[in-house]
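ARCHIVE CARD
Drawer: 12
Card no.: 0347
Subject: one protein chain, sequence and derived structure
Cross-reference: see card 0346
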Amino acid sequence: MGCLCIVRVVEQRSVKERGVEQQVFLGPPHVQATQHYFGWPELVPVTDLASAVKAIETIVEQGEGARGNWQASHYGKFLQVLQEYRELKPQDTSFEPARPVVAAFVRPPSDSSEFTLISDPLTAGVSELLNASYEVTLQLLIRYFVHSSGSETEDELKTLSGTAVDAMFLIMKPLGQLLTTLPVGPDLPGKTAGVSVETPWLPKLISGMAWNVALLCA
């Protein structure tokens, strides 16, 4: 409901009425992420009140399904999955559409005192590889989003954005799927590991690091 509240405030034109529109929409428009770099047609630059309303409307309709064709929104799709599960389960009580995944970590998290650690060496290695891939992807995206006029060429910006998106689908997705098939360890028989998204090595912003990764993956 957060996005819905925001769009209602924006629609009331409170920003424009207060005369602070220029103070709210900061930064050069040409450095924003758009379809040109990431391929998604819904990704539009937000530079003023009108474009902000359009972007938030898309989030509200596609994500929360609060308006428009809610059946096609993320909410509608998840609701359909739930309804189909409730129909199929009585027909076959042994039907389990999901793997027996538990939240498990390679190392103790700093923000929780209750956690499950992965004790299987192979599973821990796959989880570490996925975590490292996630951090590398963040590094590429950070480098893209802090670019300024003239800091990168057009081809370089496309390399950064394209490599980041490819890493999501070609590296992180298959690793995540593999991880959920691997055992947590002998202390939890029958349970498999979920994606923990640990970032213990989250690097400081180093443009050279991002470019080394991009060049290797290009």
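Annotation on reverse: The chain has a mean pLDDT of 81. The first strand starts at residue 101 and ends at 102.
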